[in-house]
Specification:
277 residues; alpha+beta; four-stranded antiparallel beta sheet; two-stranded antiparallel ribbon; 10 helices; 6 strands; 13% strand
Length: 277
């Protein structure tokens, strides 16, 4: 088996037989019907198998990076953790089905977990894939930051005013970066991205506004930290713009954890360095 690359995602499937139907019948009454299904296993086994599935998906979802097209994607870096969860899941499954008294029925049950490796497609499609993934992750981070800002409006009545002020400063910063003669291609791309993508610009604005809030509840900031850790796991697959915004978010978060909040001038100055550096 080839080693999994850090630029790949994983799709996980428990792939387990959950029941065996012995017989099924239905009753019709006017515009309704009732389906009666008889299972070939004891109810307590059926119940425990469903609890098993829910419990193990909960364990896996703690490692999920994002939902893409309604499919949970995991980072290839979490492969050892995922394998450990699946190995334990198989042991638990076998223990449950061992309680099925009928050997013939028991032989029909199986649990063969699968891990599908998802790689970026070649050519122009790879760029589209990276853009799609980056947008999804940054949108997820933006929603988290927005929720935190809303929770902190009561603690800092000036927060809305600060947010508007930061937005105007970010607009000025974009213009300033455009005027720089010797700018790198990445910065030029970032400026263009911030111009055409309102959500990216809003994310930068919100992160900076969060930094300049007078008081920040560090317990709430853990949600931002959690999102950043997910993004870091797949940073190899991000667009250059998304990588730059990841660095901006990390710098603001570290400053907040150090208690460096409420200082608008310092926050914007560091933002300028982060974007152009």
């Amino acid at each position: 088996m080839k080693p999994v690359s850090e630029t790949q995602f994983l799709v996980v499937k428990l792939n387990a037989k959950m029941t065996v139907i012995k017989e099924s019948e239905h009753e019709e009454e006017k515009n309704t019907f009732l389906i009666k299904t008889r299972h070939a296993i004891p109810y307590n086994v059926y119940r425990d198998l469903n609890r098993w599935r829910a419990r193990n998906w909960k364990r896996l979802m703690k490692l999920k990076v994002l939902d893409w097209m309604n499919v949970p994607l995991f980072s290839s870096k979490d492969l050892p953790k995922i394998k450990k969860i699946l190995d334990q899941a198989v042991k638990e499954y076998e223990e449950i089905i061992s309680r099925i008294p009928d050997e013939e029925i028991r032989s029909k049950f199986y649990c063969k977990p699968q891990i599908l490796v998802v790689s970026p497609p070649p050519g122009i499609y790879e760029e589209n894939f990276r853009q799609d993934i980056s947008t999804e992750l940054l949108t997820q981070l933006q929603q988290t930051v927005q929720q935190i800002l809303e929770k902190h409006e009561e603690k800092d009545p000036e927060l809305k005013k600060k947010l508007d002020h930061v937005e105007s400063l970010v607009d000025e910063l974009i213009k300033k970066l455009q005027e720089v003669q010797e700018k790198s291609i990445d910065v030029e791309k970032l400026v263009q991205a911030l111009q055409v993508n309102e959500s990216l610009k809003q994310l930068v604005t919100q992160l900076t506004a969060l930094r300049v809030a007078s008081r920040i509840d560090l317990r709430v900031v853990k949600a931002v930290e959690s999102d950043l850790k997910k993004i870091e796991k797949v940073q190899e697959i991000l667009t250059p713009e998304a990588k730059k915004l990841l660095e901006v978010a990390k710098q603001h978060l570290e400053a907040i954890k150090r208690g460096q909040t409420g200082d608008l001038s310092s926050a914007v100055e560091e933002l300028e360095k982060a974007l152009s550096g």
